[in-house]
Structures are given as structure tokens and as C-alpha cells.
Amino acid sequence: MAAVQEQTVKVWKDSITTKVHVAGDGPPLVFLHGAYGLTWDPFLETLAEHYTVYAPEHPGTTLGDPDGVKALDDLWDLVLYYDELFDHLNLEKPYLVGHSFGGMVASELAASYPGRVRKLVLVSPIGFWLDDDPVKNWMILPLEEVVKAAVFDQDSPLARGMLAVPDDVTAAQDLQIRVTWSLACTGKFIWPIPDKGLKKRIHRITAPTLVVWGTEDKLVPPVYAEEFRKRIHDSRIEMISSAAHLPHLEQLDNVKELVNNFIRQ
Asked: Which pLDDT value is given to residue 168?
């Protein structure tokens, strides 16, 4: 198991304190997490077997700096912030992997700064809107409904773990506060959910791109995979069966192999 270190970096004229989780050895790879906050999960652990993984917490979601998100007004500020963060971490052209909200941010970063990304992996990214296949509003849904939409097997340890509540009252309250605040911080850049113009910029992505999607995703319908593929010139889709919005966790071995093979090509 890789030893995970935490780096604290001040960005945006020192107004945002960012915690970056780092582990592994090898070429640099940045992982941008989804709306519910960063957890060092088995997928990151497997990536750290081959790469030096940098997993930053999105602005405002870092404990101790809840006001960090206030320094950024909109999505463009967030993209510029990540450009600065890459500079602070001396990441010239890393591999970039993003899940869900993090996939949208990764797409925006790769479109705005095509030369910053060596290869791009998008796992169930958001960023587009189709009237006939709307994205569920996870920000207002009860957690139970989110889990039903995001996890294929409701009896799996993953689904049960997402619904688990600590026995300790204080720990349970802290968890609820963390999740709620993470949703608020990431929601600042996407509310309302319909796209923020990614479709106008995504053609600028030049990095080879792998789009990974669960066939049973009921949070962000699988039809969106084709929207990403047809708009990114050098891209391909891998649909993962028996998986929903979290294919990298539900079918870890399969997705791990796909990602490693893609990066090594």
C-alpha cells in the first residue's frame, strides 16, 4: 500500500490553501475528484502503483480553509486556479484523470491549456446537457437516491459504505458537514446544472482521451459518453458493464487495466 503524503500549497495570491494528497512513484498523474469530496480510494491506490499521483482537494473542501472557494467567482477562475496549482506543484505536462465534476474540470483545463495535459481520462464526466436525457440534480437528492442512481449493485460494500453513518455522534455530524460543504463548493461552479459552455471549447483538447462510463449510470446517462467522444478529436469510449456512475470503483480491475493500457500506448 502506497504511503500517502499531504502537501499544503497556497495558491491564488495565497488566498486559497489547497491540500494535495501525493503517493506513488513514476510519471506524474493528477486526479480531480467528484462533487462529494476527495477520498483516497482503491482506484487511487492502484494508480499509485505506476504513477506519482497528485490528488488535490477542490477549493473550499479542504478542512481549515472553508472560505477558500470565495476567492473564485466562476468556472473560468477555477480553471485558472488549477493552472496555477500545476505550476506550484511543478507539473508541466501530467496525465490527467477526472471523475464526474472532476471530469468536467479536467475537460475545461485540457481545452483551455491544451499543452498542459499529456493524456486525459474522463470517468463519467459532467459538462453537457441533453433535454431528452437530463442529468439528475444530485445536490438536492437524498443520499439514498443518489446511491441508487450512482451504484449498480445496491447490496455491494460500496453502496453500503456510502450510506454508512458513524456511530459516534460528533463523527457523524462532521461527515454530514463535510459532504454538504463539498457539494456547496463544487456546486458554485455548475449551478444550474445545464452546461457552462464546454461544448464551445472542448474541440480545443489535443490530448488523447479515454472516456469511461458505466452502462447502468442513472445519475449521468451513458448517452453522454458519445457526446464527449464526438467532440474530442482523438478520443475513444470504454463502456463498463455492471457499473453505474462509479465504474472505477465498481469494476476496479477492469478500469485499472483500461487506464494503464491507454496511458502506456
From this structure: 87
Taking the CA atoms of the chain, what radius of gyration do you get in angstroms? Answer: 17
Q: Which residue has the cell 477558500?
A: 68
Task: Give pLDDT, residue 28.
Answer: 98
The H or E element spanning position 31 is strand 28-32
The angle, 0 to 180 degrees and rounded to 10, between the axes of the packed helices 101-112 and 75-88 is 80
Could you tell me which residues come within 8 angstroms of residue 80 by beta carbon, excluding any fewer than 6 positions away? none
Query: Which DSSP category does 248 fall into?
Result: H
pLDDT given for residue 167 in this prediction: 87
What residues pair up with 28 in beta bridges, in sequence order?
Answer: 52
Q: What is the pLDDT of residue 264?
A: 94
52-56 and 16-23 as β-strands: parallel, antiparallel, unpaired?
Answer: antiparallel
How far out from the chain centre does Cα 38 lie? 9
One-letter amino acid identity for 51? Y
Chain centre distance of CA 200: 21
| E-assigned strand segments in the chain | 5-11, 16-23, 28-32, 52-56, 95-99, 120-123, 209-214, 235-240
Which residue ranges of the chain lie beneath pLDDT 50?
Answer: none
Residue 239 is placed in which grid cell?
A: 463502456
Report the alpha-carbon distance of residue 254 to residue 257 in Å, rounded: 5
Neighbours of 157 (CB within 10 A): 9
The amino acid sitting at 42 is: P
